[in-house]
Write a structure and sequence with these properties.
CATH superfamily of the largest domain: Cyclin-like
CATH architecture of the largest domain: Orthogonal Bundle
Largest sheet: 3 strands, antiparallel
Shape: globular
Low-confidence stretches: 1-16
Distance between the termini: 42 Å
CATH class of the largest domain: Mainly Alpha
Structural class: mainly alpha
Number of domains: 3
Order of helices and strands: EEEHHHHHHHHHHHH
Mean pLDDT: 81
Helix content: 55-70%
Strand content: under 5%
């Protein structure tokens, strides 16, 4: 049993199966809100999404009391703080000692390692939030490693190259994730990701022997169908409609695969009597209703 995220236990329908009399919700390592007593999953929430502090009060209220350890690179990082763990000021001799140790540690680290310290946790956080498989994460890290070694990140944003590397790996393996979703989670402008992605496609991928594949609407059909709650029969009918229209001359070149997948789902759901509005399907597919109607009309014309 899975309860949508944001729904309280008290707001559940009495006819539905209640998990237990006294639910105890905890946040698992994967970001799921789970009842410890019976195991009911209440939904998923993003982890490691901390709010930024802008004012002095926000800095004071959101300050951590313990260091946030990196999952990549050395665990011991000597900073330049002039206070100890209790917030008390260090004396001049001890402050000079830690300042000298910080400079020594910084001199032993090259720019590539320092770049990897920042980029690896960002990539792992993105993959965790988007539920990306490990083999795609490994491909994305290989791509970004080549980007860093060729010094393409100099004067550019590390976040944009990390996001672009992840999306390039997704396109290579034909995984059903959209660029808009990745940019929305990464919280960076899509224009900067496009610029970084262009450099990766032109320079990095040919050297590594990877092929940047176009997006296929086939995996998007089953993904959108599952998010809309359509039956597997309707999803298979939508796939068959796409195959039949392609055999009769439907041209996919230059058309957004999201619109094609949403259109065949709309036609299949309408044929099988499953009521889904154009607004619902367009919202899931991240397209407009005009695009949905246009693609549905084109596909219907090739089925006659």
């Amino acid at each position: 049993m899975t309860i949508p995220y944001g729904m309280d236990y008290d707001g559940l329908d009495e006819k539905q199966d209640a998990c237990c009399t006294s639910p105890h919700l905890v946040l698992s390592d994967d970001g799921f809100r789970v009842c410890q007593n019976c195991g009911v999953v209440y939904g998923q929430e993003f982890v490691s999404s901390e709010r930024r502090a802008y004012t002095a009060d926000e800095v004071k209220n959101r300050r951590r009391t313990e260091p946030r350890w990196r999952t990549y690179g050395p665990r011991t990082v000597i900073g330049i703080s002039k206070t100890d763990c209790k917030g008390q000021q260090l004396d001049s001799k001890r402050a000079q000692l830690f300042s000298r140790l910080s400079k020594i540690q910084g001199s032993l680290i090259n720019s590539i390692e320092r770049n990897f310290w920042e980029s690896k946790p960002k990539l792992m956080s993105l993959c965790q939030k988007l539920q990306i498989p490990d083999f795609i994460q490994e491909s994305a890290w290989k791509i970004y490693s080549q980007v860093a070694r060729q010094k393409l990140t100099m004067g550019r944003s590390i976040e944009s190259f990390v996001t672009a590397s992840l999306y390039a790996a997704i396109r290579i393996h034909n995984f059903p994730r959209l660029l808009e979703e990745i940019v929305e989670v990464a919280l960076i402008p899509i224009r900067s990701v496009h610029r970084s992605l262009g450099l990766i496609v032109r320079i990095i991928l040919p050297q590594m022997g990877f092929k940047y594949k176009p997006i296929s609407p086939n995996p998007l059909i089953y993904r959108f169908g599952a998010e809309l709650g359509l039956t597997i029969t309707t999803q298979k009918d939508a796939y068959n409609i796409l195959v039949a229209a392609s055999k009769r001359g439907l041209k996919r070149m230059g058309k957004d695969p999201k619109g094609i997948a949403a259109a065949v789902l709309y036609l299949a759901a309408k044929h099988n009597g499953e009521r889904k509005t154009q607004t619902q399907i367009a919202s899931i597919a991240r397209i407009t209703e005009v695009t949905l109607r246009t693609r549905a009309k084109q596909i219907r014309g090739h089925l006659v």
